[in-house]
Amino acid sequence: MMTFEEFVNSGSRNAWVKEPGRLELYVRVSLPTTGTDYDLANMVCRSPGKGSLTNFLDKYEPKHTFMIENVMNVRLRDYFVRRGYVVIDGMGFGFGSYVLKDQG
């Protein structure tokens, strides 16, 4: 399984990627209508609560924008809001999807 950085450089449209901290993400190149670079469509963390997702976002948010799809976990919903993400439920992307608000 490739890393997110390898995925970005691969030219693939979607793939499962593996990041440090036992974090696995299903990522896709975003549709132009989202205004983001990549969709984080599914995530599995084999060691939750250890900072794996935070480390991933801290590393890649400065270079890329993400839409996080269908967040069902209340703890994660609150986490994304604290990071500056806003819900986009009304845009047809499914329940509990988030994008990072404009930092401009």
Q: SSE layout and pairings?
A:
Layout: H1 4-10, E1 14-19, E2 23-29, E3 38-45, H2 52-60, E4 66-68, H3 74-82, E5 85-87, E6 98-100
Parallel strand pairs: 3-4
Antiparallel strand pairs: 1-2, 2-3, 4-6, 5-6
User: What coarse outline follows from CA principal-axis ratios?
Assistant: globular
Mean pLDDT level: 86
Number of helices: 3
The whole-angstrom Rg is 13 Å
Structural class: alpha+beta
**Low-confidence region ranges:** none
Give the termini separation.
Answer: 35 Å
How big a fraction of the residues is strand?
Answer: 25-35%
Into how many domains do the coordinates divide?
Answer: 1
Can you count the beta strands? 6
* Helix/strand order: HEEEHEHEE
Largest sheet, if any? 6 strands, mixed
What is the spatial order of strands in the main beta sheet? 1-2-3-4-6-5
Helix content range: 10-25%
Could you characterize the architecture of this molecule?
The protein has about 100 residues and is of the alpha+beta class. The protein has one domain (about 5-100). Helices cover about 25% and strands about 30% of the residues. It has three helices and six strands, in the order αβββαβαββ. A six-stranded mixed sheet has the order 1-2-3-4-6-5. Strand 3 (about 40-45), helix 2 (about 50-60) and strand 4 (about 65-70) form a beta-alpha-beta unit. The chain starts with a helix and ends with a strand. The mean pLDDT is about 85.
